[in-house]
Design brief:
Number of helices: 9
Helix content: 40-55%
Radius of gyration: 18 Å
Distance between the termini: 6 Å
Protein name: Phosphoheptose isomerase
Keywords: Isomerase
Domain SIS: 38-218
GO molecular function: carbohydrate derivative binding; isomerase activity
Order of helices and strands: HHEHHEHHEHEHEH
Shape: globular
């Protein structure tokens, strides 16, 4: 299937998604633009850096799990991507299990680094430090904050923008300071934390599903 046909199909999927959760019509365009930026990131050889606090940190981990392995598709390796340095006796079994991944990193997951930096330097800059070290202009920063005001997430995005990265915020309705300074904000229609989180999950599930479909569907 040609890429333009895939985009048309995925946009139809977006319309179906909005029909199921019509209160998200206000963020339809920003959801679509986030998907397009994710595609651009991966086509440019970039990666996605994700972070959040508490439940949003768990969401960040969830997103990584959907991107780095097969989600709705198997993503089996092609013959041209075989691993010639692996012992031939192991090659078939290993190649039969490995899958293509979409590079993504959860900045919340580096406990030793984060606690060391928080203790020795500044806890509000734990994600900013990682973005400074890992981020490139081809990458995308996805910051998750139900209020949009989490300082450590916000500062991570500020550093990301200074490095030329596209910065996306997934927030509650107000959007906070992240809405003012990030490139795209998906600010769902509630400011009640658990309700915001219940909106976030289906949004990032769909985004991960669409990106996978774009790159790996036949």
């Amino acid at each position: 299937m040609e890429n333009r046909d895939k985009l048309k199909k995925i946009e139809n999927n977006l319309n179906d998604f909005i029909k199921k959760i019509p209160e998200l019509i206000s963020v339809r365009e920003n959801i679509w633009n986030t998907f397009l930026e994710m595609i651009k990131t991966y086509e440019s050889g970039g990666k996605i850096l994700v972070c959040g606090n508490g439940g949003s940190a768990a969401d960040a981990d969830h997103i990584i799990g959907e991107l780095m392995k097969g989600f709705m598709l198997k993503r089996e390796l092609k013959e041209k991507d075989s691993l010639p340095w692996i012992n031939s006796a192991l090659s078939d079994s290993i190649l039969g299990e490995l899958q293509y991944g979409l590079p993504a990193i959860n900045l919340c997951a580096h406990n030793a680094l984060n606690t060391a930096f928080a203790n020795d330097v500044n806890p509000e800059l734990i994600f900013a430090q990682q973005v400074f070290s890992l981020g490139n202009k081809e990458d995308l920063f996805l910051g998750i904050s139900t209020s949009g005001n989490s300082k450590n997430v916000y500062y991570g995005g500020v550093v990301g923008k200074s490095k030329g990265m596209t910065c996306v915020a997934l927030t509650g309705e107000n959007g906070g300071c992240m809405k003012k300074h990030f490139d795209i904000t998906i600010n769902v229609p509630s400011n009640i934390t658990p309700v915001v989180q219940e909106y976030h999950l289906p949004i990032y599930h769909e985004l991960c599903k669409w990106v996978e479909e774009y790159f790996f569907s036949i």
